[in-house]
Structures are given as C-alpha cells and as structure tokens.
Amino acid sequence: MTINTANICQHLSHAAKHIPTELAVAVQTAQSGSLSYQEIDFKALDADSDDMAYRLNAAGIQAGMKAVLMVTPSIDFFVLTFALFKAGIIPILVDPGMGVKNLKQCFEEAKPDVFIGISKANIARRVLGWGKPSVKHCLNVGGSGLERWLAGAKNIDSLPKAELNTPYPIQLLDNSQMAAILFTSGSTGTPKGVVYSHAMFEAQIQALKHDYGIKPGERDLATFPLFSLFGPALGMASIVPAMDASKPITANPDYLFAAIEKYQCSNMFVNPALLERLGQAGEQKEHKLPSVKRVISAGAPATISSIKRFSQMLSEGVEVLNSYGATESLPISMMPSSALFDTTESTDKGKGICVGKPIDGVDIAIIDITEDVISQWDESLPLNSGEIGEIVVKGPMVSESYYQRDAATASAKIADGDIVRHRMGDVGYLDDAGHLWMCGRKAHRVDSNKRYFSIPCERVFNTHQQVKRSALVAIEVNGATVPLLCVELDKGIVCSTSKLLYQELLDIAEKYPHTTGIHRFLIHPDFPVDVRHNAKIFREKLSVWAQKQWKE
C-alpha cells in the first residue's frame, strides 16, 4: 500500500516511544579549551518539540507559514526544527557561509513570515533589512544583555508555556506538499531554494538505513547541521562537536577526537575539507578511531591521498563511503574507499572520478550536453556507455522544483510521466559495469577546437609532484576560445625552474588525447575555493584572472 502522507517527526515519536531514555543529541561546547556537553534523550526531545510547536502556534505562527531558521547547532536547533516540522511550518535553511549579498537575495525570494535566529543573526536582520517586507514574527534564541536587546526580537524562552500536556498532533503533509526550503550553497552558481517534501526526507532516511546500513542505537559525529537532523529520525544519537559548520577547515581536531572518544561514535559525516584536516592531525598524533565503523563523505570529491591518510586512523575493513549527489538530489551513488583506491590509476590517466553505482531506487542516465530546456523525457535521450554527457537522475529523493525560480526549474528538470528527473549540471559517463564516472561541471568544460572536461584534464596534470592542484579555464586569444591550465604548486616541495616546469607540463599534455592542445599554463599562488568544502575551485574567478594575465 502506498503511503501518500508523511512527516519526518513520526520517526522521532517512534524513537521516543521505543527507546525513550537513549541519548538523542549531545552538543559539545568549548570554553578556554575546556570541553562540556549538553545532552537530551529521545523522550525529552520529542516532548520539548511538542511543547515548542504548541507555543509557536499560541504566538500566531501557524501551519503553512515559512520560517527562516538561523540557529547554530544546539539543543535549541533540534527542538525548534522538529517543532516546525510537527506544526507544518516550513523551515527555510540557509548556509551562513554563502555571504551577505546571497543571504539577502534568498530572503527576498523565499518571503519568510517568521525569522528565528541567534542574537547575531537578528542584529544582522535589523541592520541589513533581511526579510523586512514579509517577516511578521521575529524570535531570538540565546544571547544575553545588550546583545539580546539589540536583536529586537521576542526571546524564544518568553513564549508562554503550552497548557496542553498531550502529544502535539503532527501535521501530515501530502507527498507533493512543500515541507522545507533548503538553499544551495551558491559555490557553483547563484543559491537556489530547493523545495523539499517529507517524501524526499523519507527517501533519504530509507537510503541511510538500507544502503548505508545505519541502525538504531548508533552514535554519529554530526558535522553538518542538515545531516545531524537525520540522527534522531534514525534512532541514532547526533553528537555535535564544537566547530563552525560553515567553515570546517577551522575545526579543532582535538575537540572532534574528544567527542568521538567520549561517546564512542560509530558513524561520521565529514566533507573533504574536514577529512583532510582530521587526517593530517591523526597522522601527526598517530591517533586511532577504533569505535568508528563507517565514514560518510559528501559535498565534493575528496582526494584519494586524503582518504588514504584519514583511513590510517580507522580499524581494518572500515570504509570511507564517498557519496555523490547535491542538495537537489542526495544521495545518488556511493563508492567505498577500498573500491575507489582500485581506480586511482584510471583517474590519474584522465578517466574521471568513479563515484560508484546508483543506490537502490535511483536511475542514472547520461544525455547529450546542451543548454536547451528539455521539457519531456524520451528514451532516445540516453547515450551509450562510455560516452560523456550530462548526468540526469531519477529517484524518490530527487526534488521536483526550485522555489520561485521557474526558469531554473525549467532548465534543471525533465518531466517523465508522473516523475521528475533532475539534470545535475555535472558531466560524466557510465561504464559497462554501470559505475558512474564524474568528469566535472557542465559549465566548466572548454569548447575550443575540441571539447575539454575539467576533471579528466586536471587529474592528469595533478600527477606532477610539484602540482598541488590545477584548474582548466577558457580564455580568448585572437577572438578564439582556447584552454588554459591554472596551476597551484605544492608549497612543501622545492620547485624546478619555470622553464623546466613548463616543458614538463607540455610533455604531460602530449601523453593523452584528451589533453593534447593544452599548452598555456599560469602559476596561481592560492586558488579561490568555497569555504565549506575547500575543494570546489572557483574557476570563473580564475578565468577572469587568467584572461588578464595571459599575453601571447
């Protein structure tokens, strides 16, 4: 029987009934190097979010309203988020790391009715006018004294206590109804609000259960706020370390290692920047993580060297599961580290990065590269195995639209009967065994006398011992588009002369058919990259820089 209504909070209520006293959330706080922890069990989290849902309703905040939530990972964050879901109030989740300009645009598009934030967020709202035309209710979380006064919002603690002691009647939404708006980070373009339904959340929970093998009673080091919400829904405790989730590269590894040890975490969710940072710290300290049974990495492709370094801390047989997907559709495929290591030679020769086979229920197809809108799916669209094209995905965790962005929706979505396929904006191919190989962003290809793809080209040059990373960009020379490779050198290695390095890079280019024709190189001191992953190179900025630098 098909279930047409859902709410992610049903899983929390189930856990509160069956494992009431088990740990649901623990939040680590660091003050002057001293660590402390705040904890809440499933029964209390369920009851507190019930109470908060009643209190929000009493304050005039009702089902169907949209609420910006800018609260740092904390017990309040979990209580508020589950309260919003229970009440059918639509949370708008944004990445604070996207920048002031992008944040303002997000609020203008989403038109929130409610703004819930920490004092600093509320002060920024007042100064910068975030959501001013639409926001009717402002609530403040935490803070004290002058900071709280400057927030200019009713403090969440001052909302009257609910008189009812009965469980809150969870709002069950139709599978097609909007349950949340999650804005993309904007690291590969303008941030867009992805419309999430509870059916999407449900599909993600099922994938984590069945494809990743997560079981009730596990404990997860939750370094990404959205993923941390899945913990209580899975009957798994979310252990939130003291770190800025929007800037994982600044995390203190000692704090994270302490949280893992204290709670004997079995699962970790880490992005490439954090994987690299923890791996380096673990190598220096010869640290081990014997309790960890599974590591999930997502957000951008992690380098094989950083995965190998991190894996030295893990027990034999424990995998780093590299997940492919995007805010619009996650997870799509998965590649265990042991299998990934076997593809190193192919990746170094420019075959792309293998991101594994589709998870259960997901269909991946490759279509011709085009900027045209494709309104209807046709079975003649998929390319043959081995042919590079745009990656298109279908599955229950795939979003159907962007919020208030009809043009973006038309460009990225393809109707396939009652289902919507999503164009990932990435290029790649399927091999004969059904593995997906990623070859970069569609927008990062260079069409010159032939077509060049970013990852296959860059990974070839990255094998040079002096090259830390490289970036393929397009420049105009005498009215023609030509490829140019920006190169960032490894600062820990003594470099050869520029003339010798240039010749060595030319020699590499001539070794492979997909890199022949690349004979322009520029050394860049420090690539501009996204803050969250420290892996997504801003090639658009490098292209502008290269155009100014290059002289024939």
Short descriptors:
28 strands; OlefBLtnSynShew; single chain; alpha/beta; GMP Synthetase, Chain A, domain 3; 552 residues; seven-stranded mixed sheet; ATP-dep_AMP-bd_enzyme
Q: What is Rg?
A: 24 Å
Q: What CATH first level of the domain at 451-549 would be assigned? A: Alpha Beta
Largest sheet: 14 strands, mixed
Question: Multimeric state of these chains?
Answer: single chain
CATH-assigned homologous superfamily of the domain at 451-549: ANL, C-terminal domain
Q: How much strand content do the residues show? A: 25-35%
Organism: Shewanella electrodiphila
InterPro entries: AMP-binding_CS, AMP-dep_synth/lig_dom, ANL_N_sf, ATP-dep_AMP-bd_enzyme, OlefBLtnSynShew
Domain AMP-dependent synthetase/ligase: 36-403
Protein name: AMP-binding protein
Describe this structure in words.
The protein is of the alpha/beta class and 552 residues long. The chain has a domain at 451-549: GMP Synthetase, Chain A, domain 3 (2-Layer Sandwich), CATH 3.30.300.30. The chain has 17 helices and 28 strands. The strands form five sheets. Strands 2, 3, 12, 13, 14, 15, 16, 17, 18, 19, 20, 21, 22 and 23 form a 14-stranded mixed sheet that branches. Strands 8-7-6-4-5-10-11 form a seven-stranded mixed sheet, with helices on both faces. α10 (272-285) links the parallel β14 (267-270) and β15 (294-297). The longest helix is centred in the first third of the chain and has 17 residues, at 42-58. Residues 36-403 form the AMP-dependent synthetase/ligase domain. InterPro entries: AMP-binding_CS (IPR020845), AMP-dep_synth/lig_dom (IPR000873), ANL_N_sf (IPR042099), ATP-dep_AMP-bd_enzyme (IPR050237), OlefBLtnSynShew (IPR054910). This is AMP-binding protein. It comes from Shewanella electrodiphila.
